[in-house]
Amino acid sequence: MFKKFSLAALTIAFSATSSFAATNITWWHGMAGRNGEVINEVSKKFNEAQSACALTPVSKGTYEEALASGIAAFRSGEQPNILQVFDAGAATIINAKGAVIPAEDLIIKAGHNFDRNAFIDGVRYFYADSEGKFVGMPFNSSAPIMYINDEALKKAGVEAPKTWEEFEAVAPKLKEAGYIPLVQSQLTWQFTENFFSRNNIQFATNNNGYDAVVDTQLKVTDPNLIMMFDKLKAWKDEGYFAFYGAGWNDNQKVFEEGKAAFWIGSSGSFGGLQKTAQMPFSATFLPYWGSIKGAGTNSFIGGAALFAMSGKSDEENKCVADFFQFLTSPEIQYFYHKATGYVAITKAAYELAQKDGYYKEKPVAEVGIKQLLLPAGDWSKGYRLGFYPQIREIMEREYGRIFSGETTVKDAFDTIEKEGNELLARFAKTAG
Amino acid sequence: MTTATDLLPAARGGTGTETRGRRFGAFRLFGGQSNSGGESTAKRVQFASPFLPYLFLAPQLAIIFIFFYWPSVQAIQSSFYLEDPFGFGSTFVGMTNYTDVLKSGEYLGIARFTAVFTALVTFFALSIGLLLAVKADGVIRGNAAYKTLLIWVYAIAPPVAGLIGMMFFDQHIGPIVELARWFGWDIKVGLNYFDTAFSMVVVSVWKQIPYNFIFFLSGLQGIPVSVREAAAIDCRSGFRRFWTVILPLLAPTAFFLLIINVTYALFDTFGVIDVMVKDKAANNPITLVYKVYMDGFRGNDLGGSSAQSVILMLIVFVLTIFQFRFIERRVHYN
Questions:
Q1: A259 in contact with chain B, both atoms CB, cutoff 8 A
Q2: Contacts of A289 by beta carbon, 8 Å cutoff, 6+ apart
Q3: Is residue A430 within 8 angstroms of chain B, CB to CB?
Q4: Is B84 near chain A, with CB under 8 Å?
Q5: Does B102 touch chain A (CB under 8 A)?
Q6: What's the gap in Å between the CA of B259 and the closest CA on chain A?
Q7: Closest residue of A to B196, CA-based?
Q8: CA dist., res. A63 & res. A59, Å (int)
Q9: pLDDT tens for chain A, residues 1 to 432
């Protein structure tokens, strides 16, 4: 009996020797469902493409949970090699000096070439430091775009608007045709952060927070932003805009059911929307204000990036670099773009998709990339603000109060600026 | 088939004549000296070595220390620091974390909501649980099926309860929303503060009723038939009989349940709230515990979050003292 067992054990041990030689690396991420499956497929492709490294992806729940477990693991010295961190959490990990090895350093040290210009403009800056060095490797990137209910436009006999002025002109006709003209799914991302980028307005001092954490302050009482929300409130009162709360799906559902004409969502929603939308739809850029001088610049990315955590052996770091290199290859980017709806992050991958005729077949898939490729402005590169998830919560609360009539737009933004700046000052102390 | 009530000691106590010194099963959970008349029957064990008993206790003490005291001490410690999440540096800030929290209007608003929420959930969960138990106690035919149906809900995990509640109250597909609209009430959970609060209370109460039901029922069944018969002879009004005889006899169970329900409303409703606000509190009500989670796990503000948990710990501490000192005085165990 004992012989049999030991024989079996030996067989298992030897059959596994092929991976014994390989360096094992782990990747913690915050994706579930279909997107989580795609991550497993990407990892499998990487493991099959070479034999030196073996990558294991681990789903840690949501973005927030992945970040929280990554932090807890780092504190006990058990961190993974790669951690996926979402846009609002970027400041937390980037400002923790020594927690990560900048992706660019890692890749160059491993002997690969790294060309910042190979990346699409809207992608290049968000996870980089103020000198433009890539700290995180952009992974799943999306842009807020406007989805269009084709039936509604046909029925009302109108064109999709490029600016908010044009929207004001078509909204009454859409309402008359029996539609809710506009819904959106995340006010903080679409109508605050990207309002600043799309209209090229400064979001926060210290170069939107990129240059320093100390004394960084929000500039959300900008008259243009207040004007935007005054308009939204007025539109809501007139029935041109409907708001179902901070929950993403509550707002998306109305569009899926064909009750709304326009829905501002994520370019990454395209994959799912193809299955759920009950009417033909198309998409266009997030509108801007024609009245604001210099508006119409690109938007920056949402989504998440991969960070190489420090405290690992050189061999493992080499594997992480190899993986980042693999991930940015046009073929893998194109595969990921098609499988999920997130945008391709490099120009080469975009060209590959074009050449393949993907956008002729699915023009909506191209809208997000095109918007990221628009000319950049001084303030359209992104932001880097500490305790930002909490600042977003304050915004969500105040926006809810605006639309329920509990507060005025002016007061709401005063509150956001005051409480937000307090949080930023607290964060400066932790990072100092 | 064994129902949960059968498993409780008090239920097994049956309707016999042993009245004096009997304890309600529920109260046994407190341990301590609940074993009535126990002094005479309990065996005194003499240990040869004075260290042996401590050795036996050690595993239990170790668990308590590692999982309760150590984290509490850590929480108190980190509440005086501002720390970067990755643990690279921390600055001693004294009471700043506490003053920041207590000065914040938002925090006080959440505290107020938590108080109201706890009071409502406890009151309705207890009173409805008691009502159902009294009614179930009176049922003779088919009472096992009736009881099982009521107890069933308790097996549902809070997040699942939240999910079911969410579906009932969903803005687009919820049947309760449809029903309320018919009466002219446009419920918007996730958008309207009051509506969200209302549905949170309803789902939390619904979730807790079966638990209270089990304990009240076992308490009721522990009341001797002779006492009931005597009461029935003395007083014809069932309602008065209930208030003057049955309820005082249920007092120990009720007191135990009061503490459990307050704790439930404060802490265990987390799952329900999480599902209802979908991770985005926005302008919706949340409780103090949820705020701790939001700031600590989502916002990565460890110092601020620790200060909040210490405050919460103090609140629970004060509440417990209050309950044991003032309410328990009105409870008669014999």
A1: no
A2: A163, A164, A165, A199, A224, A227, A228, A295
A3: yes
A4: yes
A5: no
A6: 32
A7: A245
A8: 10
A9: 555 556 555 555 555 444 457 899 999 999 988 889 999 999 999 999 999 999 999 999 889 889 999 999 999 999 999 999 999 999 999 988 889 999 999 999 999 999 999 999 888 999 999 889 999 999 999 999 999 999 999 999 999 999 999 999 999 999 999 999 999 999 999 999 999 999 999 999 999 999 999 999 999 999 999 999 999 999 999 999 999 999 888 999 999 999 999 999 999 888 889 889 999 999 999 999 999 999 999 998 888 999 999 999 999 999 999 999 999 999 999 999 998 889 999 999 999 999 999 999 999 999 999 999 999 999 998 999 999 999 999 999 999 999 999 999 999 999 999 999 999 999 998 876
Contact between B278 and A247 (Cβ < 8 Å): yes
Alpha helices (H) along chain B: 4-7, 9-13, 25-28, 38-41, 52-64, 70-78, 96-103, 105-138, 143-152, 158-168, 175-182, 193-221, 225-234, 238-241, 247-263, 270-277, 288-293, 302-322
Distances (CA, A) of A104 to A132, A324, A383, A389: 10, 10, 20, 26
Contact call for B190 and A250, based on CB within 8 A: yes
Say yes or no: A256 contacts chain B, CB-CB below 8 A: no
Given B89, B190, B281, which is nearest A397 (Cβ)? B281
Answer for the pair B232, B224: CB distance below 8 angstroms, yes or no.
Answer: no
Q: And the tokens for B239?
A: 């309602």
Q: How far apart are CA A78 and CA A98, in angstroms?
A: 15
Enclosing H/E stretch for A260: strand A260-266
Instruction: Yes or no: say if A26 and A53 are a contact pair by the CB < 8 Å rule.
Output: no
User: Measured between alpha carbons, how far is A195 from B273 in angstroms, rounded to an integer?
Assistant: 31
- Determine, for residues B300 and A67 on separate chains, whether the beta-carbon distance falls below 8 Å: yes
A406 chain-B contacts, CB cut-off 8 A:
283
Q: Retrieve residue A74's tokens.
A: 């780092």
Say which amino acid occupies A368.
G
The token pair that represents A247 in the structure block: 């929950």
User: What would the DSSP string read from start to end of B18-62?
Assistant: --TT---HHHHTT-TT-STTHHHHSPPPPPSSTTHHHHHHHHHHH
Kindly state whether B89 is in contact with chain A, defined as any CB-CB distance less than 8 angstroms.
Answer: yes
The pair of structure tokens assigned to B268 is: 């265990």
